[in-house]
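Input.
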Amino acid sequence: MFMITMMMGTLLTLSSQNWMSMWMGLEINMLSFLPIMMNKPSTKASEAMMMYFLIQSIGSTMLLFSVSMNMMFYSQPLKMNLIMTLSMLIKLGGAPFHLWVPEMMSKMKWSECMLLMTWQSLAPLHVMSNIKINNNTLMIMVMMSTIIGAVGGLNQTSLRKLMGYSSINHLGWMMATISNHNSWTKYFTLYSITACLTCFMMNHYKALFINQMNIMTMNLSETWNYLMIWLSLGGLPPLLGFLPKWLVIQTMMSKQAYIMMIIMIMMSLITLFYYMRTMTSMMIKPASSNQWMYTKSTSWKTTTCMIINLSFPVLMIMNFV
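Output.
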C-alpha cells in the first residue's frame, strides 16, 4: 500500500502545473517512504527514519517558504529561486548538504537504498528542472557534488556508504544538464538501471563491507557479471553506464563548458578507482579457493544482467538514428 502511495506522490509532482501541488506530491512521497523504512523495526531503522524525516522536513519547509514569498514579492524572484534550489539540494542530498546520505544508507537495507537512490530522487529533480537557476550557482553545485562524491568514497569500507557517495557523484552529472529535460531524464533512467542491478547483486550476496568480497562464492559467469556491473556504474565504455555520461559530455561540449567537463571526467575516474578496489578485494582470494570453477549453470538473473550491461552499442546506434 505504501509503495502505491509513494508512486502516486511522485506522479502527482511530475504532473503538477503549480508549486503547491508539487510540494504536496513531495510530502506524500516522503510520508509513504517512512513506513517502508520501518518494514522490519530496529534501532538502526528508527535512526534512519528520523534522520530522513528531519532532513526532508527542512527541505519541504524551505520550498514552501520560498513559494509563499515568491507569490508575495515578484521583484526578487532570483533570491527565492536560490532558496528553492537549495531546498531541492537538501532533499536530494547534494553537496554541501550531503552528509546525511551515506550515514543514512549505512543503516538501511539494500532494497531501501535502491529506492532512495532512484525513485526518491525523481520528484526533487523534476522540481529542480522547473526552477530558473543561475548558471554560476549551478556550476558550483555540480562541481561540489562531483568532487565530494568522488573523494568521499575513497576511504570507505562500507559498500552502502560507498554507494551513497557514488549517488552524490551521479547527482552532480544529472544537475549539469538539469536545464535540458531530455538529457537528465535519460541519465536518470540509465543510472537507475545500473544502480538497481548493483543493489540487487549486493542484496543477493548479503554483502555490506568490502572485506566480505574475498569470501563470496561465485562461478565464472557470476564473477564477470559482478565486474561488469561495477564498471558500468563507474561509466566505463563500452558498458551501459557510459551512455548517460557520454550524453552529458555532448551537452557540456555544446555549451562550451570544457573546463567543467574535464573536471567531471577526472572525478569520474576517481569513482572508478574505488569501484575497482571492491573488485580487487573479491578477486584476491586464497590459493585453495575454487571460486573460478564453473560449478553450476548460469542463472537467468546473471544472463539478464549481462545482456543489459552489454546493450550500450545498440542504444548508441539508436541515439544517432
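The chain has one domain: 2-320.
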